[in-house]
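Lab notebook, bench 4. Still working through the backlog of constructs that have no structural model yet. Next entry is a single chain of 1516 residues. Request: give me the structure tokens for it.
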Amino acid sequence: MRVWGALQGAALLASVLWATPLLAKKEHPTIEVTAFEQQPWNLNYFPESDVVLFQDKLESNVYRSDDGGVKWKQVDDVKDGVAWMLFMHEFDNERAYIVTQGTKHYRTHDRGKSWTIFETKSEPSLYRPDLLKFHADDPDRIIFNGLICQSIIECHEVAMYTTDGFKTPAKVLRPDTDGCWWAKSSDLFSTGSKDLDRDRILCVSKAEFSSRVDDQRLLISDDFFKTSGSDIQEFEPNLDTNKPVHGVVNVAVVKKYLLVATTSSNTNEMALFVTDDTKKWHRAVFPTPHDSHDHRLMQEAYTVLESTNYSIQIDVMTTHPSKPMGVLLTSNSNGTYFIENTEHTNRNTHGHVDFEKIAGIQGIFLINKVENWKDVEKDPKTDKKIVTEITFDDGRTFEKVTADGKRIHLHSVTELSNLGRVFSSPAPGLVMGIGNTGDYLDKYKDGSLYVSDDAGMTWSKALDGPHKYEFGDQGSILVAIKDSEKEDIDEFSYSLDHGVNWVTEDLPKDLKIQPYILTTTTDSTSLKFILIGESKDKKKPWKVISIDFEGLHEDTCKDSDMEEWHARVDKDGKPTCLMGHTQSFRRRKKTAKCFLKQEFKHIEMETKDCDCTDLDFECDYNFVRDDDGKCVKRGPIIAPEGACPAGKPDATFKGTSGYRKIPGNTCKPTKETDEKYKEKEQKCSDVVDAPSAPATGLITQTKKSFGKWNLFEKHYLPRGESSSSNDETIIMRPANKDSNKIGSIWISKDHGKKWEEIDALKDENVLEIIPHDYFKDMVFFVLKGKKVMYTLDRGERFHEFEVHVEKDPEDRDWPLKFHPDKMNWLLWEGRKCDGDECYKVVTYSEDRGDNWKTGARYIERCEFTGSSEYKYRDRKQEQILCVKHEKENNEKDTPWVLSATDNWFKDEKIREKNVRNFATMSEFIVVATEDKKEKTLHALASLDGVNYAEAKFPFGFDVPHQHGYTVLESSTHAVNLFVATEVTDGGECVRGTIIKSNSNGTSYVVSARNINCDGKFYVDFEKMQGLQGVVLVNTIANPGQEGAPKKLQTKISHNDGAEWDLLPSPAKDDEFGKFPCHSSAKDKCALHLHGYTERRDRSKTYSTETAIGILLGWGNVGDSLAPTSDADTFLSIDAGITWRRIKKGKWTWAIGDQGSILVLVEANKETDVLFYSLDLGESWKEHKFSEDGKVEVWDITTQQSGNSQNFLIWGSDDNGMFTINLDFSGFTERVCKHSEDASKSDYTIFTPQHPKQPNGCLFGHKSEYLRKKPGQKCVNDFNLPKLYTNTNCTCTRQDFECDYNFELDNHGQCKLVAGHAPLDAESWCAAHPDTVEYFEPTGYRRVPLTTCVDGKQLDKVGEPVACKNHEEEFERKHRTSGVAIFFAVIIPFAAAGVVGWYVYRNWNGKFGQIRLGEQGSSAFDSDQPWVKYPVIVLSAVVAVIGALPVVAGSLWRAGKGLAERWGIKGDSRGGWSRLSGGGRTARYTTRDSFARGRGDYAAVDDDEGELLGEDSDEEV
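Model written out:
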């Protein structure tokens, strides 16, 4: 085998030659041995030469041999000790590059004889292996992926480029990239234009204001992304036929195809987009799912295989991750539509697939399959029984592999024992492999070497035992050395007759090695081989052995020594057709006594086309062969473009016959095949994405009755943008509080039009339904005992596993914890008892529950805190934090500690002691610790999970006994921390102050005082979804008035809490009457809204993420907030700047089609009508949904994303509980179109404003969003871009907030708190250890989100001063090494700008509240599964110290009557409870949700709360 990539290993130290060559004799090869201290690393041949390079990683040097490994020398011209990485040019056989860790690197254009320096102006990126990207046609065109750092923490990835082979310094291509590629990255790929082939570049661009991978875009430039003014010469291609797609994570060039992979939040499914010219793109379409599996591309669960010049081949994992199996798929000729070749392919956990093509021969490849796949699917602990098969028609049919009439099985890619191709080489027809005869594949150590010289058709045993092997002289020489796990091999073997006879040669001077690599030139034409092995020599154990067969045969082969070999022949030896043609090669006869000696000459194939037969055709997309061998339809078919217009499902077209010619097949058509496989008449109703029925202009509705139930638990499963399905799935379970019963679990795939009971769960005792926090296609069902069932695909199929310990019945938290990136990583918290002592334990699984191991004992809670989004130095992806007893006992005095592990509990380190709890919000980890002596709490923050710093509160903000913190939503690179400043004697929160941190969460300033909270420490604080920095709070206007009712006023901030204003009242009276007063947000007259603390349904947020700028709420106009009985319903469509009353009284709402549909239904009253608006609330129309009289409506809901045109009414009538689906899609079938010409576009531009900045700037920039024009009759068929355009503004006062120890005075200016001093330089630098310089305090600091430039710089007056110990960095501030991020100093709180390898689905914001300590629920997610939809509230670090009374009575232990437990709004329908019946336990929250365990709230996002309780046995 030849070396195709790097040889992995430790660094080596070069040495002198260890042994003398043997005497050259014709009957022996020449052997030379060179000894080294360490294993060679990254060994590479220059193609078509005997020149070899490898790296010495320890000394950072490169060594070169120009004689096939006989002699080695450190390369000249390269400075000693600077070689960091070695790269070979992909398309030029004489070029290579040595990359250093600086900005000066080395290049060679003469196979390493000489090296010259080149400059890049940026250091190499630390986050990607593909630093250099090469142009396939022009070797001088190279892209360099680098890193530019302004300071030790402020770094950004940047792409550089050269068009002259780095003769001049590289130029900046584009900043803020996640990889760039030449369109012409493959010699087979072409745009169809010579100019575009030369210049076109594709880059993955990171979003300017988001680190979320969902916001990454693919951008194309034909002019090197040159700028014109503020514009970059680039465009975003329409990946999905006619619209762009965000969430781009990678680009790959496969033969003549260019592939783009995208991901999105809520799903682990990826979308694959394909083009063969970069102009026209299509989403790859996979077959309709089977009963046993589907074909979705899941992250880390699909592999793009070595494809052909005419199709793409992909293997998709379909089973358990611990014993993975897959299905092999092949595309049509343009890479768009895939069909299934075979099932149950063997994979390993690294994504490798037992699949390899026979090199140089079309249509032949070997695969390994799992014979006992049913048993493995049923029980992943079952050992696989693997068999080997071969195909000669590119995977349409498969045959057994035989040796001497017996079936053999071969070890393949999943068990690599060497590098490069496993079986074959460019030697025509010569194939070798390790395997065994029998029914199944045995262990590798029990295998033997087999050889085939007819491309795998027949095999024969060559040598006993496993061997490493290689081909030379175009197959004239076969070399093999026995594999071993010890240094005991002292010989190798070779064959000169296609493996029939073998000669054994001893290694010189009793040398014994453990072989690691056997390799030769990439084209297998050389007579020289390199063998690398490790010996027992303690000083220089690594041996590089050169084996040269020159001289064994003096003759050079003549024409009479050659034969014509055919890739496939019939029984008479005549060539037969393979892929529509015969394939023939000239090769040396196996018995010839000669060598070809045609080094570096490529072997040519001769072909001759044949007439087409049935064997040249396969089943088309979504057709499969039946028992008679005919292709029959199994799913929707593909219609030609434009064949099926919208609104005409009954139209017909000429389409597929069910067959297609095999891609790459060159057979000549015949009359018979043309007639047999001609197109047939097809119906548009049978196609993929069939056209909808013509618009009716009506709302259609479908009712479903469930019987006498009066509660329900529901879980919407939101889809990601990369999801291939268009279902709107809901899982629901009804209950009855009066009869203490729980109903069956139901599922609807179409938003409640059709409901079905889930058969797999009918006979199961389901205690809890737990949707995955991050991958919403997954739902887990916790059963009584140790069994857990789950679905990966939205309820299509179900799987199960068993845990080691049962869930703790006293624990209200969900037992499962999830990782934000790794779908298969799970934590399970349960109870274990040793005799009479019981304790809580956490176990973990890396393979989705197939295998479990114990992690930690005596815990309170654990959570994954590692994330690909937060790439801080010590915040590993495997990081887990736990609150646990310091000692493993249940003693009352044993303190709780915060422990951390980065390696699955192999090592644990205590980070903090006397810990109450912790919460994660955005990038921050906030910890509450207790000072037992002072009976108070302290807040600490960390960005890396390793180093924690105590929060510094501003002077003048003095809370002697801190009883509670609430971590509010912190999506703007700052912690918003609510600190309770007034608490009743009963431990209930009255009011508090919101303080806001700097970018590392340690230094705080006051943002707002006298903020309202309730007895559970929840706070009237809510961020507007979809827009940064817009926040609403309710403040107490009469603080300190004991016994007086709270006088609440609503305030809004448009700059993340730096400034606050009252809400302006509507500008005029409306159809519902006069307002009591008019004013522009004055103290005596303003609009006030009921906030989070008053909501029965806390998922009813003011806004939704996809309806940018739209706010809805209940409130009143006056000097303060009136009782809810006096509330009306108000709407704002400009992010809270102006408001209007849309309904008198309280109406609950739902938002659909990204804000295009607003639906209202009256709350808490029986009704039979609803109102809807299609023009952003300008007009409202009535719809009567009940013809049988008024009914009780519990709620109206829709998809959490706000993208759906379907809504669901939940309620009850005389027959019991019902749902009614309301479908608004009948209003139009036309898809909205966007045009740059505003008059032709269905969209308008919405620009958020700051009320005090008439120039339209917000956070230092003007942002524009697409919004459908009010009343436009069309439907949004894709998620509108979160940000359409953006332009930076000059800095103004609104881009700054008050600095530490400063607060706003009555004039809105930042004033130093009396009696206190600003933060001095020493304190500033100590609090910001990664900061290089310091400015004298001015009272102002930049709002973390602002991007403003120039203008007022209120935070910088005078000259900067270097921080202590940073003097040198201060001097070279703009030259700081990116490598220092990893290797310089320990950074307690790295800034949010550190660049990481961002992956899919990352979430940069948090909805709702995290209350530290009430329970151990995960505070890491914005959309916890038990919630109806995202909640934007506040809550998180409520910490209640031990001296306080119980915060709220323990509903969980009280054992009160059922009616008492279900009390909300006075009608026994709220509150948490425990229902016991037949020994099963379940928990409920109102009608909307029961399954999650907090006793005080309705369905609420998990971010909403974790309360740091007094003791572990007193819960809220």
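Notes after review: The CA atoms of residues 1259 and 1345 lie 6 Å apart. Residues 1-25, 1374-1516 have pLDDT under 50 and may be disordered. Flag for follow-up if needed.
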